[in-house]
Amino acid sequence: MYIELKDIIPGWNDVRSLTTLGELAATVPEDGWIFEIGSYCGRASYVLGSNKRPSVTLTCSDNFPDAPQVVPKGINGDEGTHYNHFTFMRTVENIPNVEVLWGKAPMIPRFATFSKSIDVLYFNEPYDPERTLLQLRTIEAAGLIQQNTVVALNMKDEIKDIIDVLCPSTDYKTELKYGILFATKI
């Protein structure tokens, strides 16, 4: 399977985790929904969008800065470039069926109405167990997570903490692959 990547876009994911995300996006059924929290410069957004079916909706959510910010050193991709809401929009402009929500993810179900459940929910942001759990529970409470929804988290080194916090019961079946925790709602 060929996975389209654009490694120059700044972001947290390495090439192996991007490939895993591309493979996951390709499995979402027709008219499905991928929801990304923490889109940043669009590194993972580009991979998710470029590898999904055209009928699948990709919703990207972030607190994009108004004024351009410099990408810090130590991040994968093109360090020193500037990013904001407008540069992100250029990253995804040729991807079909993309919507961008500008704001804090826990608030989204409170001001937006959605007509279907999420197939893939991807947390692509610096890890904070309490914030991640709050976001997940808020989205669950809005009825957007159903059986077989895949919740994917960009991990780093906090593997045990997130499994303990996110999956204290048998609500999710978990698998770790290349730094991404996949938790499938059962």
Question: What keyword list fits this structure?
Answer:
about 190 residues, alpha/beta, Rossmann fold, 7-stranded mixed sheet, two-stranded antiparallel sheet, 9 strands, about 25% strand
Provide an overview of this structure.
It is globular, with a radius of gyration of 15 Å. It has one domain (15-185): Vaccinia Virus protein VP39 (Rossmann fold, 3-Layer(aba) Sandwich), CATH 3.40.50.150. The protein is 30% helix and 26% strand. Strand 6 (118-123), helix 5 and strand 7 (145-154) form a beta-alpha-beta unit. The mean pLDDT is 77. The strands form two sheets. It has a seven-stranded mixed sheet, sandwiched between helices. The protein has a two-stranded antiparallel sheet with strand order 3-4. With 186 residues, the chain is an alpha/beta fold. It contains six helices and nine strands, in the order H-E-H-E-E-E-H-E-H-E-H-E-H-E-E. The longest helix has 13 residues, at 15-27. Helix 1 (15-27) packs parallel to helix 2 and helix 5 (129-141) packs parallel to helix 6 (159-166).
CATH superfamily: Vaccinia Virus protein VP39
Q: What is the chains' assembly state?
A: single chain
Instruction: Specify the structural class.
Output: alpha/beta
Radius of gyration: 15 Å
* Tally of structural domains: 1
Please provide the ordered H/E string of secondary-structure elements.
Answer: HEHEEEHEHEHEHEE
Q: Which spans have pLDDT < 50 for at least 5 consecutive residues?
A: none
Separation, N- and C-terminal Cα atoms: 27 Å
User: Quick one: overall form?
Assistant: globular
The name of the CATH architecture is: 3-Layer(aba) Sandwich
Order of neighbouring strands in the sheet with most strands: 5-2-1-6-7-9-8
The number of distinct helices, counting runs of at least 4 residues, comes to: 6
- Share of β-strand residues: 25-35%
Mean pLDDT across the residues is 77
Helix percentage: 25-40%
